[in-house]
Amino acid sequence: MTSLPWTWPVQGVRSYSLGVTYQIGAVLLTGCMGGPNAGLLSQIAYVLLGLAWVPVFAQGGGWNYLTEPSFGYLLGFIPGSWLCGWLAFRKRTNLESLAFSSLCGLVVIHLCGLVYLGGLSLFHPVVRQSIPLSSLPTAIFNYSVIPFPGQLIIICAVALMALILRRLMFY
Question: Which of 2, 53, 106, 149 is the most exposed place for a label (fewest CB within 10 A)?
C-alpha cells in the first residue's frame, strides 16, 4: 500500500502566523464601522483600562507600561482610529475607500509608535527600560518593519468586513 504524499492527515493542517496581533484589525474596524467619534472614544477607553491595571495589553497593564517600547503604538491607536473613521465616512462606501482609510490609520499608528521609540531612546539615561540610541534601528525594524506586511493583510480583511457589514446595515 502506498502512502499519501501529504502529511496533513497525520500531522494536521499547518498554519503560519502573520506575526501580528488582531488589535490593529479591531482598532481599524471600529473606525470604519463607528466613525471618528466611536473610534476615538473606544481607543481612549482601551488605553485607560490598560493603564488602570486591567490586563488588556499584550503583556498585562499598569503605569509601568509607559516605559514599554510598544506603548507608542498603543497611543497611536487613538488618532489612528479617529483618522480611519473620519476618512471612512467622507466618501461613498466602497472597498477602495475603506482600505485607504484603514491604511491611513495604520500609518498614523506607526508614526506615533516611531516617535515614541525615538523619545524613549533620547531619554535612555533617565528611563530604566528604554532603548539605547544605538539600538533604535533594530527596534524600528522589530516594531514597524517586520509586522507591516501582516498588517497589510489585516487591512484587506478589515476593509472587506467593513464593506459587508456597512451594506448589511444600510449605511
Answer: 2
CATH number for 21-168: choose from 3.40.718.10, 1.10.1760.20, 3.20.20.100, 1.10.720.60: 1.10.1760.20
Domain boundaries, the chain: 21-168
State pLDDT tens for residues 107-121: 999 999 999 999 988
Q: Express the helix, strand and coil content of the chain in percent, nearest 5 each.
A: 70, 0, 30
- DSSP, collapsed to helix, strand or coil, labels residue 169 as coil
Kindly calculate the radius of gyration of the chain based on its CA atoms and give it in whole angstroms. 19
Round to whole Å and give the CA distance between 11 and 6.
Answer: 9
Q: Is the pTM of this model over 0.85?
A: yes
Average pLDDT, the chain: 90
Distance between CA atoms of residues 81 and 158, nearest Å: 13
